[in-house]
Amino acid sequence: MHSSCLFLTLAATAFAARPFLNEADTGIEDALDNIPAGTLPPLTSMVGLPDFGAARNYLPIKNYTYYRNGAAGEWSYRNNLEVFSRYRLRPRVLVDITNVEASLPSVFLPCITILSSNKWQNNNIWTTSGHNLSAPFFISPAARADYGHVDAEAGLAKGAYDGNIL
């Protein structure tokens, strides 16, 4: 009885295992092939989240590994990539976009502390807690920001201010 339970458990695990392909190839390696190691590429050349893997060439391996690794065998990370890959995005071409609403209400972020700033511009596209932002993401507090740069959180705050994001 016990051996059959063990066999069924192992068989279920083996059948449930499937190969994992990391992020999609965005061609960032070709775009950044002439940038020497230890030099940061321009942020404007990053077109997708996988492109931030270019930090591997800039950060010491210990620091990059700290940011890159996920908890619990990266199950949640891998699951999110697999689920997102199931969606097919169909581009709409030759569609009139002159009257498209450019701001997106944030219904899932009810309260965010925002530093007062006079640098807000009129071309913001994201609204959260009544404030317009220039990007649909924000920088949250994180431990070990000094692994990314010596300025740590102060550098993140300055970069967010310069980029007009939260």
UniProtKB/TrEMBL annotation:
Cited PANTHER family: FMN HYDROXY ACID DEHYDROGENASE DOMAIN-CONTAINING PROTEIN, S -2-HYDROXY-ACID OXIDASE-RELATED
Signal peptide: 1-16
Species name: Lachnellula suecica
GO MF terms held by the record: oxidoreductase activity
Cofactor: FMN
InterPro entries given in the database record: Aldolase_TIM, FMN-dep_DH
Residues in FMN-dependent dehydrogenase domain copies: 55-103
SUPFAM superfamilies in UniProt: FMN-linked oxidoreductases (SSF51395)
Protein's recorded name: Cytochrome b2
A Pfam entry, by short name: FMN_dh
Organismal lineage: Eukaryota, Fungi, Dikarya, Ascomycota, Pezizomycotina
Keyword tags: Signal
